[in-house]
Specification:
With about 130 residues, the chain is mainly alpha-helical. Helices cover about 50% and strands about 0% of the residues. Helix 2 packs across helix 3. It is flat and about 60 Å long. The relative contact order is 0.13.
Amino acid sequence: MPPIAKPKRERRPSFLRQWRKHRGFTLEVVGAEVGMTGPNLGRVEKGEVPYSQDLLEQLADMYGCEIADLLIRDPTDPEGMWSIWDRAQPAQRNQITAVAKALIGDTSDTSSKASPQNTVAPKRAKVTRRSA
C-alpha cells in the first residue's frame, strides 16, 4: 500500500518580512547574519519553510524587538495599538490603560500595583553586522 500524503498545512502569517524591511535590512544581510542564504530566509518569511526558535531569537536580537512581535505585530502599522503604545510617555500609558479598562468595563484598580499594563519590558539591543 502506498504511503498516504500528509495534507500541506497552512502556516499562520507572521511579520518577519515587515520587521526586516522596517529595520532597513536586505535578505542577504540578515541571511548571512543568521547563517542561511537570502533566498532561504525569503522562503521562511513567506511561510514556505518553517522557522525555528533559534532563528526567531536571532531575528529579534537583530531587529531590536521581542520574538512575539515578529509573529503578531506589524511594525509598519502606525495605527496599531502597540505602535501607539511605543510612542506614548509613561503617564500617557497610564491614561491609555485607564481608557481601555473603562471601555471594556474593567473596574479593578491596578494603579498601586506594578502590572504589565503599566510597565514596559526592555527591548532587546539591536545587533550590528560584524565586519569580516
